[in-house]
Amino acid sequence: MAGADLDMGKAREVFEASKDFTVGIEEEFGILAQDTLALDHRYEELSEAAQDDEVLATAVAGELISSEIEIRSGRGETFSDAVRSQVDARARLIRLAGENDAKLSATGTHPFSPWRDQRIIDTEHYRRLQEGLQYVARRNNTFSLHVHVGIRGADRAMAVCDRLRPILPELLALSANSIFLDGVDSGLQSVRSQIFTKSFPRCGIPDPFHNFAAYADYVNLLVRTESIVEHTQLWWSVRPHHAFGTVEVRICDAQSSAHDSTALAGLITACVAQAALDYDEGVAFADPPGRSIEENFWRAIRYGLGGKLIDLERGEEFPAAAVADRLLAWSGPARAALRIESAEPAENGAQRQRRALAGGASVEEVFAEEVSETQRSYAGAGVPS
Question: What is the CATH T-level fold of the domain 4-378, as seen in this structure?
Answer without folding.
Answer: Creatine Kinase; Chain A, domain 2 (3.30.590)
